[in-house]
Every structure is written in C-alpha cells, then in structure tokens.
Amino acid sequence: MAMKVALLGCGAVGSEVVRLVDEQRSELATRAGTALEIAGVAVRRPERARGLPIDPALFTTDAMELATRPDVDIVVEVIGGIEPARSLTLAAIKAGKSVVTANKALLAEDGEAIHSAARAAGVDVYYEASVAGAIPLLRPLRDSLAGDRVQAVLGIVNGTTNYILDRMDSLGAGFAESLEEAQSLGYAEADPTADVEGFDAAAKAAILARLAFHTEVSAADVHREGITEVTAGDIASARDMGCVVKLLAICQRSADGSVGVRVHPAMLPREHPLANVNGAYNAVFVEAESAGRLMFYGAGAGGTPTASAVLGDIVAVSRNRLAEAQVVDSGGNGETRRVHPMGETVTRYHVALDVADRPGVLARVADVFAGNEVSIQNVRQVGHGEDAQLVIVTHMAPDAALGRTVEQLRALDMVRSVASVMRVEAFNDQ
Ligand SMILES: NC(=O)c1ccc[n+]([C@@H]2O[C@H](COP(=O)([O-])OP(=O)(O)OC[C@H]3O[C@@H](n4cnc5c(N)ncnc54)[C@H](O)[C@@H]3O)[C@@H](O)[C@H]2O)c1
Ligand SMILES: N[C@@H](CCO)C(=O)O
Ligand code: NA
C-alpha cells in the first residue's frame, strides 16, 4: 500500500518536493520500501497555474482537513511561520500522522510542545531542512553522534548574511549595497529583518543546541545580535589582524554543565575552516569529545536543495512507519541543563579606539581593562597624532566584564571614539 503524503504549502520548497516526488517516483519507492503518493497539496490559491506534474484536483485550500484526513500517513509542512503552521502540525500529530517540517521558526519557538505531542502520539517529527537546508546535519547530531558528547557547535547558518559579509570583505562594499545585491539575487527576503537581525540564525542555533546538548532550548534563550551595525571599519580591522567577520551561531557546553547559545558577528582567523565559507553557503563545525572536530558544508537554502532534505526525511519516516517504529528524538527529553545568560559566556574582544596620541593614554586604557579583570593579549598602535588608534585584543573573559570595559573606555576623555568592538572566536587558545 502506498504511503500517502499531504503537502502543506507549495512555495519555493513545496513545489520542488512535488517535482522531485514525480521525477524520482521509482527510486523513492525502492528506498522507502513502498510507493510515495501525494494525497493533496494545501495552497492559498488553487487556481494559480504552477506548471507542476500533479493532478490539479489535488490542490485544496483546506489545510486542516488535509492534515487530519484519515487516509494520510505523512504531513509535510512547508508553509513556514508560527500560525497556522503550529495548529496544523499539532493537529496532524494528534491524528497519528508523522510530520516532516522545514519550519525553524516554529521549532525554535514551540519545539517542546511539538516533540512531546509526537512522543505521546507515537509518531515521528523530522526536520532536517529546518537548519542549513540541504546539509545533513541534524540526523548526524541526533543519530551518528548519539554515542558521543558534543562540546560545541559553531556555524554559519544564514546564507543571506554570509553573502553580505563576504561582499563587504572581498569587494570592500558597504552593508546597504551588499544587502540590495543579496535581494536582487533572491537570497534575502523583501523584508530581510529575519536574516540581517539574526532571528533566522538564532532559531537554527536553538534547534542545534537542543540536539547537541539534549536539553530544552528555545529561541528566547539565544543571545542575538545581527549584522546591521557591522561597518567597513570592522571588516578592515579584522583584515589587519588576519581575520574575517562572520555571523556565527555558537552553542557551547561550559565546565559547570550549563550551555550558552548565541548568534553575533565575530572575527575569525582566516585559516579557520569556517573563514573560507563564502557566498551564500553554510557550514557547521562540531566538536565532540570522542569524534573530535567535524565539519558539515553545503547549500543552506534554495528550493531544490531544501527539498532534498525534505525528501530524505519523507523516506526515513516512511521506513519507520512500515517498521512500526518511532525514533527517539533525544533533544529535550534528556538532561535538563541551565542555559546561561550572555554575560556569563567566556569570550574575547577586539577593541579599536581612536585616541589622543600622548604619554599616559595607553596606561589609562590598560587600567580600565585591569579594573574589570580583563587581561590584554596584545595591543598595537596604528597611525600617529590625530590619526592614532589603539587596537587591543583581550584574553578570554566573561562577556559582562568585557562589555563593562568598553562602556568605561567610551567615557574616557582621551578616547575620542570607539571605532570597532567585536568578539573574536577561535583566535588561539591562550
Ligand atoms: N526557501 C528556502 O531556501 C528554505 C530553506 C530552509 C528552510 N526553509 C523553510 O521552508 C519553509 C517554506 O519556505 P519557502 O521558501 O518554500 O516559503 P514560500 O513563501 O516560498 O512558500 C510558502 C507557501 O505557503 C503558502 N501558504 C501560506 N499560508 C498557507 C496556508 N494557510 N495554507 C496553504 N498554503 C499556505 C504560501 O502561499 C506560499 O506559497 C519555511 O518554514 C522556511 O523557513 C526554506
Ligand atoms: N533565509 C535563510 C534561508 C532559509 O533558512 C538564509 O539566508 O540562509
Ligand atoms: Na539540514
């Protein structure tokens, strides 16, 4: 008997799922162990000509009816956003359907409700497409690394911002023109807020941290800073230190067992593998106790690559349904760990100060660092007289102490302005 798939949403990802299910019909049947049949497609405008290889009679505007229809086995949610996606997903689970979703926003906001509903109903929720699109990342974290202890996940998980920062670095372009370029190429949405303010990356960070550390993490737990304040001066400052600026999603386990989850721009040494991830590509670096360092790289967005991840999930949940098995999603039903605030996160700052060029300035600046128990790793002066700039890189210190230091530096008379402040990751281990 065929496995019946209800598709909710037929946009960039959904339409590619329809096309690939048709194009790969026989291979998919072999791999899934049974034929896959699209039982219906929920859309807003059924009359729209989509040119897809599917009987138009399968289009419906009643997504709820389709998601809960008795003959449906698997519901694929590619509408996006919180509502109606949440109600549809929960209703499908309650009706005994397995769910495949690409919806990072929903999983990051209300993942525990969805996962616990799935556990109670004995069905699967698979979501490989929700983080870093086509890149197989969540299944490796959940399954392949199930016997290991993940220490850290460091990733470039938003293609739009990576494209913008890459252009600022390689062409010396400004933020606004790079964003326009990303929009004209279709990477950034017409409203690019979710990308450039880091919301998209923060949702993905929450999902990654939950899987990596087996604890509940939601979008609200993630410290988030976007890239709208990154200037050409920051990029130039990074270059001077042999670094590149990237928007990073960082999930770390601390010595006390708590976890930190954050998204912010950071300077990264050019020799770090993530520094060479260019254009709209994504890459995620995982450090595990026994496995060591692993890296996952590829297309993090785009209709066809994302549909690849959705189809892989459809095949996987089909196999589980045939075997009458449910996979344990050990995300939030493992240990409960404290998610610590950003102030407790131990990190390192790069600070460039426009200063008066006269005796005693360096000593006074160093005093402020010392007063906050922040140790300086190196300091250099660039330019002279009116153009003098002090560029300081700190040792690791709690983020709260580093932030306080910068505030006090701003208040010093001899500091004309703080030209650049940015965290530095993976610089070296001292
Ligand atoms: N496009 C990508 O590169 C990409 C990558 C990874 C994950 N995702 C995720 O995949 C999901 C879908 O993204 P997309 O790019 O295909 O978006 P999209 O906007 O192209 O498609 C969503 C579709 O859902 C339809 N829709 C909205 N409300 C509906 C309703 N009530 N009933 C039926 N249809 C409805 C819209 O008309 C639209 O056609 C999102 O969760 C997104 O975050 C997308
Ligand atoms: N808007 C996202 C793609 C979907 O996650 C990005 O630019 O990476
Ligand atoms: Na993925």
From TrEMBL:
Pathway: Amino-acid biosynthesis; L-threonine biosynthesis; L-threonine from L-aspartate: step 3/5; Amino-acid biosynthesis; L-methionine biosynthesis via de novo pathway; L-homoserine from L-aspartate: step 3/3. It catalyses: L-homoserine + NAD(+) = L-aspartate 4-semialdehyde + NADH + H(+); L-homoserine + NADP(+) = L-aspartate 4-semialdehyde + NADPH + H(+). Transmembrane segments: none annotated. Its cofactor is a metal cation. It comes from the Bacteria. InterPro entries: ACT-like_dom_sf, ACT_dom, Asp/hSer_DH_NAD-bd, HDH, HDH_cat, HDH_CS, NAD(P)-bd_dom_sf. Keywords: Amino-acid biosynthesis, Methionine biosynthesis, NADP, Oxidoreductase, Sodium, Threonine biosynthesis. The keyword NADP applies. GO terms for molecular function: homoserine dehydrogenase activity. Pfam families: ACT, Homoserine_dh, NAD_binding_3. It is an enzyme of class 1 (oxidoreductase). Residues 350-423 form the ACT domain. Its EC number is 1.1.1.3. Belongs to the homoserine dehydrogenase family. NCBIfam families: PRK06349.1. Catalyzes the conversion of L-aspartate-beta-semialdehyde (L-Asa) to L-homoserine (L-Hse), the third step in the biosynthesis of threonine and methionine from aspartate. This is Homoserine dehydrogenase. It comes from Lipingzhangella rawalii. The lineage of its organism: Bacteria, Bacillati, Actinomycetota, Actinomycetes, Streptosporangiales.
